Amino acid sequence: MTSQLISVSPDELRFHFELEKQTFCDLKVLNNTQNNVAFKVKTTSPKKYFVRPNTGVIHPWDSCIIRVTLQAQREYPPDMQCKDKFLLQSTIVNPNTDVDELPPDIFNKDSGNTIEELKLRVAYISPTSPEGSSEDDASKNSTQKLDSSSSQALQHLKEERDAAARQTRQLQQELDMLKRQRNRRSDPGFSFTFAIFVGVLGILLGFLLKLLFSSPQND
């Protein structure tokens, strides 16, 4: 939508309407002149919408973004039809004029200023409408992709954990086996040495006893 001073895009305020949820629509306002242009946004339902900035000054050939926020609503409008209207007023101001320096009556037609006006309609888009559904589907697809990536990462971590647990069990089993083998090797050796010691001790005792019992007979 275009006037001699400014251009506004889009030409209609569209809000994806959901109960108990805020939503917004951005308007791009372009200065089509080599002059500073002041603007002001008005609406027929000021309590429903939050407009920032609602007043401003755009430098020559420059642009600005106006964000219009629809406050959270508690009920659906009849047939999802909205009768709210917005009015965007614009006028030329002196160079280097700041928004705080704008006279209070600058957008008053009785002030003698040339005021241009653009009227903007409001449309509510239901989540079940094709436009709303396509956006929701894209959001769902994006969420599903994130969930899938998270699941794959979680599965990979589980596999690594299980592999580490298996390696730990395998190492423990090998360690137990080495301990058993060492014990098997050490026990027979100990028994054999003990048997030799006992045998030698028995022979010595027998020899001593034989000497003791044989000595008196020789006398």
Largest sheet, in brief, is: 5 strands, mixed
Strand share of the residues? 25-35%
Tally of separate helices: 1
- Round the mean pLDDT to the nearest integer and report it: 82
**What would the principal axes of the Cα set say about the shape?**
rod-shaped
Task: Describe what this molecule looks like in 3D.
The protein has 219 residues and is of the alpha+beta class. It is built from 1 helix and 9 strands. It has a 5-stranded mixed β-sheet with strand order 2-9-8-4-6, with no helix packed on it. A 4-stranded antiparallel β-sheet has the order 1-3-7-5, with no helix packed on it.
What is shown here, in short?
The protein has one helix and nine strands.
Map the helices and strands.
Blueprint lengths: L5 E4 L2 E5 L6 E9 L4 E8 L5 E4 L2 E4 L4 E8 L14 E9 L22 E10 L4 H89 L1
Parallel strand pairs: 2-9
Antiparallel strand pairs: 1-3, 3-7, 4-6, 4-8, 5-7, 8-9
Features of the shown structure:
5-stranded mixed β-sheet; 1 helix; single chain; 4-stranded antiparallel β-sheet; alpha+beta; 219 residues; 9 strands
